[in-house]
Amino acid sequence: MSIPVSRQAAALSLAFAAAASVHADPVPDTIVVTATRTPQGAEEVIPDTVIVTSDDIAHAGAGSVADVLRRQRGIEIVRNGGAGTSTSVYLRGANSNQVVVLVDGVRIGSATTGAASWNAIPLSAVDHIEIVYGPLSSLYGADAIGGVVQIFTKQGQGRPSFSAGAAGGTYGTNRYDAGVVGSTDGEHAVTYALGGAREESDGFSSTRPGSSSYNPDDDGYTRTTVNGRVTMRLAEGHEIGAQFLKSRLSAQYDNGKSAFDARNRQEVDSYAVFLNDRFLPNWRSSVQAARSEDKLGSFTSTAPSGTTQLNTRQDEFTWQNTFDLDGATLQVLANHRKEQVLSSSVANLNRSRITNAVAAAYDVRRGSHLLDVSARNDWFEYGAKTTGAIGYGYEFTQDLRATASVGTSFRAPTFNELFYPGYGLASNKPERGRNAEAGVQYRLAGVDLRANYYRNRLTDMIVSVTPCPSRTGSCAYNVDHALLEGLTLAADTRIGNLGLRASADLQNPRDETTGKQLARRARRHASVAADYSLGQVDSGVELQASGHRFDDAGNAYRLGGYGLLNLYTTWHLTRDWSLLARVDNAADKHYELARNYGTAGRSWFAGIRYGIR
Q1: Structural domain count, the chain
Q2: Angle at CA 79, nearest 5°, toward 77 and 84?
Q3: ∠417-422-426 over CA atoms, to 5°?
Q4: Is 356 a member of any domain?
Q5: pTM value > 0.70
Q6: CA-CA distances (angstroms) from residue 362 to 32, 147, 164, 389?
Q7: 310-339: pLDDT as tens digits
Q8: For 571-598, what is each residue's pLDDT tens digit?
Q9: Burial classification of residue 436, based on how many CB atoms lie within 10 Å of its CB (0-12 exposed, 13-18 middle, 19 or more buried)
Q10: What angle do CA 518, 519, 523 make, to 5 degrees?
Q11: What are the start and end residues of every segment in region (Disordered) (predicted)?
């Protein structure tokens, strides 16, 4: 195994585990949905999974969804400036377009880039996040090579509850949000949740001297969001519902010394209607019709040539049936997805494609044995693509469990990679992934320890090559083989009012065709965090560290490693009122996530909140 294991990182994890090996309060079981598309206890999930809780999100301050994710194991981000600029999220070294992103079960992302618009996803609407690592194409279809991230918005229950918050901080950042959740009683009970938010910031220069686009002015952003969900019980075991999320982002960026205020206007919308039925005690059916849209307008001058617009849409229909058997669960689903570019300044991209799929999964939980088997077939214009996965877990004791799994995955070429003039090739094939991994989970004296080794080999990777095999210049082309290999170590515990957690990723994401390290991915990154509650005050400290990376595929431009220190505290004034203060990058570390792009220095954020978040 050619993983560059860092002595410092390994020592850090071992020291943390040793220090935390004292009595801790038991952690209640948590329900996970994404790993198998059906609710199950976290202790029964075979894939490596992380749950970002509502408390984690509440402590995030002015951060974005991407900022919250980067504090989790196995995740790195790249941003071209501040929180409103283009953002990429890497899972276990996989590209941003090799990760499926869902909002309450609705797939989001651009049909032209293949990636979700992370900068436009509002943190204020999020209740919790589930991250499942590894290939899940056998459950979710194309693009689930590195994993699946599912974002859950707030849902209503109980008596009506109102919440609101206002906060501000460095770079002229301000945020306001409000929401109401609740439910009614009776035979046809209705649950509801509605929220809205506005966030604005003067920002900082998105580029640094050395960039051809450098302009020293500040590049701010404004983001407005509204989201909602409502369900109604039709009868015992039967409910109907609808949900939506609409986010609008206007973000400035640098375009050299031009006097025109260059900016992007981005919209991310998702809608769904669904029907959940329990026809028999052991038969549950779920039907969902969903639509998501990703719209991006770029403005660099007042001339028509300075305006570009790119609108894409995904329509999806899913029928899922789940049968609860004796100690097992059988799941069968059918899926229809249509991707299309609605309008583009590049006429050749105004296209659509349809994917139809059927899938089945069988999960067994008997005694000390856990088994997950799944298979899926997708039909599209390339023909058919079959993926499968099998995972096995064995519980040696109540505190020790080992798992192993293998699975295949694929990513469909984006419209850019197929049809963009001077870049795309219509002959490009889907990327393919084949993953094998093994893990162990051990609870020692109240400390949860976890280690996962994975080896994900990718073939037919689409990269930009020069010269292009079929024409002059460069183009997107199936040429590369890549290996995403790594070891993830994690530990967490709670000792009374003190919570401790740490993780270290030792990985070697590399292009096997060239032998180079994949761009913008470090071989080592780690995090350590502690939180403590004293009376009505919750305080915490976070340390994030990353090794060096390269900004380009040829490994010519080296980006130095960095360490970030973050601090936060929440004071619960009463049952309903609380104050939050947070300092990010407290040591004022200067670093780059992308070459010649700016990052935030020491920044603070403080606010007041009424109601339960």
Answers
A1: 1
A2: 120
A3: 40
A4: yes
A5: yes
A6: 16, 20, 43, 11
A7: 999 999 999 999 999 988 999 999 999 999
A8: 999 999 999 999 999 999 999 999 999 9
A9: middle
A10: 60
A11: 199-224
Task: State the CATH number of the domain containing residue 231.
Answer: 2.40.170.20
**How far is the C-alpha of 463 from the C-alpha of 396, rounded, in Å?**
44
- For tokens 């390339």, what's the residue? 382
The predicted model gives 219-223 an average pLDDT of: 96
**Which one, of 122, 120, 125, 121, lies nearest residue 250 by Cα?**
120
Quick check: 423 and 444 in contact, CB under 8 A? no
Burial pattern 276-313, b for ≥16 Cβ within 10 A else e, equals bbbeeeeebbbbbbbbbbbbbbbbbeeeeeeeeebbbb
User: Does 2 map to a domain?
Assistant: no
Tell me whether the omega of the peptide bond preceding residue 467 falls within 30 degrees of 0, making it cis.
yes
- Name the token pair of 245: 């999320």
What pLDDT digit, counting tens, does each position of 250-283 carry?
999 999 888 788 999 999 999 999 999 999 999 9
Amino acid at 95: N
Distance in angstroms between the alpha carbons of the first and the last residue of the chain: 45
Inside any domain, residue 153: yes
Tell me if 435 sits within 8 A of 454, measured CB to CB: yes
- Sequence-distant (≥ 6) Cβ neighbours of residue 589 within 8 angstroms: 562, 563, 564, 565, 601
